[in-house]
Amino acid sequence: MNKITLEEVNQNLMNYLQRAQAGESFVIFQADQPLAKISSAKSEGAIEAFDAFRARILSEGIDLDSDEIFADVRDRTPTPEQPRS
């Protein structure tokens, strides 16, 4: 995401709006504090981005092993189904 100043936006708003429409995103700052974001109204949401990612993984035949990926973050607390060894 690009950082721009409020002064830059005031001087060239149409440029930033056109760039946002093309897919760029901007955070507007004033005195080193973020004020607002400019992004395309057509930007993907989280669900659409996940669906696109999933479709790409499936189409490219990439094998993601969830047991391997999440092995270090799983809760190892014993349960009735998985008693302590």
Describe this structure in words.
By secondary structure, the protein is an alpha+beta fold. It has helices at 6-11, 13-21, 46-59, 66-69; strands at 2-5, 26-30, 33-38. The protein is elongated, with a radius of gyration of 22 Å. The model has no long low-confidence stretch (mean pLDDT 85).
Brief sketch in words of this structure:
With 85 residues, this protein is an alpha+beta fold. The chain has helices spanning 6-11, 13-21, 46-59, 66-69, and strands spanning 2-5, 26-30, 33-38.
Write the layout of secondary structure elements.
Elements: E1 2-5, H1 6-11, H2 13-21, E2 26-30, E3 33-38, H3 46-59, H4 66-69
Parallel strand pairs: 1-2
Antiparallel strand pairs: 2-3
Question: What class do helices, strands and sheet pairing give?
Answer: alpha+beta
The total count of helices amounts to 4
**Overall mean confidence score, pLDDT:** 85
Query: Largest sheet, described in full?
Result: 3 strands, mixed
> Could you give the count of β-strands?
3
Encode the helix/strand succession as letters: EHHEEHH
Strand order, sheet with most strands: 1-2-3
Structural descriptors:
single chain; 85 residues; alpha+beta; 3-stranded mixed β-sheet; 4 helices; 3 strands; elongated
